Amino acid sequence: xxxxxxxxxxxxxxxxxxxxxxxxxxxxxxxxxxxxxxxxxxxxxxxxxxxxxxxxxxxxxxxxxxxxxxxxxxxxxxxxxxxxxxxxxxxxxxxxxxxxxxxxxxxxxxxxxxxxxxxxxxxxxxxxxxxxxxxxxxxxxxxxxxxxxxxxxxxxxxxxxxxxxxxxxxxxxxxxxxxxxxxxxxxxxxxxxxxxxxxxxxxxxxxxxxxxxxxxxxxxxxxxxxxxxxxxxxxxxxxxxxxxxxxxxxxxxxxxxxxxxxxxxxxxxxxxxxxxxxxxxxxxxxxxxxxxxxxxxxxxxxxxxxxxxxxxxxxxx
Length: 317
Description:
Layout: E1 37-40, E2 45-47, E3 55-56, E4 95-96, E5 108-113, E6 116-125, E7 128-131, E8 137-138, E9 143-144, E10 150-154, E11 169-177, H1 178-183, E12 191-195, H2 200-203, E13 207-209, E14 219-224, E15 234-243, E16 247-250, E17 262-267, E18 276-285, E19 298-302, H3 305-315
């Protein structure tokens, strides 16, 4: 693992790494509400029940299945809509994914809003994309973003002759937890889009698992759509450096636009709960503040029992 240079931090004050979302620190002594309910963009509040499972296997996908219609050749995607902070930790270790039709790249998606680059996400079912809560809900306006203005492009790569190898899907519903809406803490910052298509039948999707034991030393992989590079998928590899109950920290380099991307690893065939490409966290934040590890490492929402239960509930919507 390469050495990290602590003198080359690009920014010391960080917004949520994706769309310039300002992190709301929890008030001392304040206990955020439990993740027992889902709030939807069509005005419903739904209970999240225990799935009674510690994870889920992913799916390989059926490459012979027809993808959704490809976007018109004249369709263009604008630049990242809002500026956000850089989170390159020392030398930049990002590399371009050469073929986004391979796994796991084809299960990672570009999310646009009103025609502009917005966030990243990843498939967990045929029609369900997980992303950051701040990518679907605006806590400043206390409203969900417009689902009708969102588009999802699995495996998008603007440098290819066919940039959208799996076409484009719309969003019919946005969801997040009541805990994120109420508290705004980065410990609860995750959500999802329900799609107008079943593209996961073709691409496959990620599995996930949770454990209470620490994950330090576990290889951490990340694929996402960074706003400072050509509009293609970029990947990094590091390891989990700090494990908290609700957050995982790593030195994977990220940039605005990668909010909602997966932090995942490849688990062997003998692993319990999830084998193959399995998600550990939903990336959302770069460095901020003056206290370690927030001032030194990027991080995301850890997959816990509550997060896992929400994923199962959202797949069923």
